[in-house]
């Protein structure tokens, strides 16, 4: 678990299966059965073809840093106390990109295309936040 703040997420009917899987240490994504699009952020219909025929599957939990920034100054006590930290877009091997943090490494060592894998920060509310660490 990293030192970053772990505020519990707001869940809804669409995202509940994703957050339930995080409690088991699984990164799940949706795939459209009609057009095979892999979807991130959880939703009730496919953004490509508008089908409601979506299925959940376990992702590999690996990907590459697509873009990032190292935050050296952050307002507020909670995030300001943990600077510097890395805010990044990770492109999952399955295709979607998600905004997250890169943890458990020197922020100066992070680079575009760095290979990463998911790690979990427990929120204390029955779910966990997906963050990534270099492989």
Q: How would you summarize the topology of this molecule?
A:
Layout: H1 16-22, E1 28-32, E2 38-39, E3 54-58, E4 62-71, H2 77-80, E5 85-92, E6 97-102, E7 115-122, E8 128-134
Antiparallel strand pairs: 1-2, 1-3, 4-5, 4-7, 5-6, 7-8
Describe it for me?
The protein is mostly beta strands and 135 residues long. The protein is built from 2 helices and 8 strands. The chain has one domain. Helices cover 8% and strands 38% of the residues. 21% of the residues are buried.
What key attributes describe this structure?
single chain, 135 residues, mainly beta, three-stranded antiparallel sheet, 2 helices, 8 strands, globular
- Lateral strand order in the biggest sheet: 6-5-4-7-8
Order of helices and strands: HEEEEHEEEE
Shape: globular
Largest sheet: 5 strands, antiparallel
Radius of gyration: 15 Å
Report low-confidence residues grouped into runs of 5 or more.
Answer: none
Ends: how far apart? 16 Å
The portion of residues forming beta strands comes to 35-45%
Total beta strand runs: 8
Contiguous helical run count:
2
| Structural class computed from helices and strand pairing | mainly beta
The percentage helix is under 10%
Number of domains: 1
Mean pLDDT: 96
Outline of this structure?
The chain is mainly beta and 135 residues long. The protein contains two helices and eight strands. The protein has one domain (16-134).
